[in-house]
Amino acid sequence: MRDELPRAELREIFDTEVRPFIDALRFGQAESSTGRPSFISVGGQPGAGKGKVISQVQKAHPGSAIVNGDDLRQFHPDYQQLISEAPLQMPQVTSQASGNWVGMTNEYLRTSRASAVVETTLRQPDVLLREFKSFKDAGYETELRVVAVPVEVSRLGTVTRYLEQVNDQGFGRWTPGEHHDITALAVPNTVETLVSSGLVDRLLIQDRDGGVLLDTEAYAGGTNLGKKAAAAVETARDLEVLSPKQAQTWLRRVEHSCQEQIRLKESDPDFLRVLEKLRTTDAAAVASRAFPGSSEKQLSALERLKAVGNSPELGEQAPNCALKRFPTPRRQAPRSKPPYQNPIDLSRAIVEGAHSADETDGSKCRMRLSIEKRRQLWLKRATKPSEYWSRNCSARPDRRNSTPIETMSMPTPSTTCRTLKLLKHSS
After folding, report:
1. Residue 214 gets which letter from DSSP?
2. Residue 351 belongs to some domain of the structure
């Protein structure tokens, strides 16, 4: 396994795999041709919940490319081997390649004049300054969106995300606790550096649900504006922003995570350390927000978490067993749309499909032929409505109202279009 790939190999993999992957993700999205393209950086510590904000940005900027370094790790030649044999080393080994591919992707998007939405943890201010300057010099509108949540919330987010992935897919992406904490500490300083540079045209601070806490122009830059932006991020990440209802939900999620950890028998030392911190130190701070003025309810909530943590099943687990992960399948780009440009192409495709039944299985063959017969019947009605109705339905009454079909109006062009749509959906 190689920690670093040669520049030539990185470029070859980008041209043959990464770039087609980025293009496929943008397939079918109509990009707005009015105004300047946009570069939007969505940042926050791991587990902050950047996904919802990215979805909002993508809707506001159709045709924009979503660039996430984690999605590009899968193209590393040793990725599958790392996932199978050394999953905890995977982020470190693939970081050099994914970082280079993010830079190549940004360069490719600038050349294509395509809007870019780049996800970041805001851990490396120098790298971000370089990217903002490159897009700004290329004539892009630049925007920084910070997802600001308390560290207790994002720490729980890393745990629940991993457990949900393991439960649903059999594998998950775990963020080491130390990496989360170091990144969280760096966020305010990075925001201050970026805003002070004057390279950011617009600054938004949002919560985990996508709500906007601050939306201001930042193109003027300057030290004072940078300090104010950093202070706003710190305020938004204070635990006091949680309402009692949100804090109670947080406590229930921690309890559920402890139960899921026992059920799935996850026993990685780092995972258990993070979960222990959540149900003790973090829970004590959140309980005061969940039940303000009621020490009894606070104590009761902490006792429940303590009881889950002291469950006999937890003690039976091996103390040094690594997180169980399975080979991660490559993320697939959206399927391309079928090449049906007009009703003739659609009709030809259906007719060809009618003769492609598998004759090796009698039951399947009969079922497929039955479906294809209905398709061809719809095809006759759609492509030659007048001839079909006059030949086959001139004497049969309508069973619903006993009105002879010959007295009813013939299918109109709009009816034919709707029929073709039904035909297309049935294929």
Report:
1. E
2. yes
